[in-house]
Amino acid sequence: MPDVRHETDKHRFVADVEGGMAELEYTLDGDVASFVHTLVPKPARGQDIGTALVEAGLSWARNEGMRIVPACPFVAAYVKKNPKAQDLVA
Q1: Number of structural domains, the chain?
Q2: Separate counts of helices (H) and strands (E) for the chain
Q3: CA separation for the pair 79, 89 (Å, rounded)
Q4: Strand pairing of 67-69 and 32-39?
Q5: CA-CA distances (angstroms) from residue 7 to 17, 26, 40, 90?
Q6: Domain limits at 40?
Q7: CATH number for the domain harbouring residue 65
Q8: How far apart are CA 33 and CA 47, in angstroms?
Q9: C-alpha closest to that of 28 among 76, 55, 66
Q10: CB atoms within 10 A of CB 1
Q11: Backbone phi, then psi, for 34, in 5-degree steps?
Q12: pLDDT digits over 2-55, tens only?
């Protein structure tokens, strides 16, 4: 798994991967984080990098006592498949 970093100033989680940088972008509205976009470069797809980004984002939200809006289709699909993440949905 890649080393996922949280760039709080840019509102994103990132990982250096083959083909560039993978990222999960979010916006903030009070104590709600909307996960709006997930990008994994083509050479790194199929390696669970997007999942690692989403899990890092959800872990951060949980630790901070935040709720999330899964606006990105990838995040929405992850939350739908993972009941343990559904309590975070605003």
Answers
A1: 1
A2: 2, 5
A3: 8
A4: parallel
A5: 16, 11, 16, 23
A6: 5-88
A7: 3.40.630.30
A8: 25
A9: 66
A10: 11
A11: -95, 115
A12: 899 999 999 999 999 999 999 999 999 999 999 999 999 999 999 999 999 999
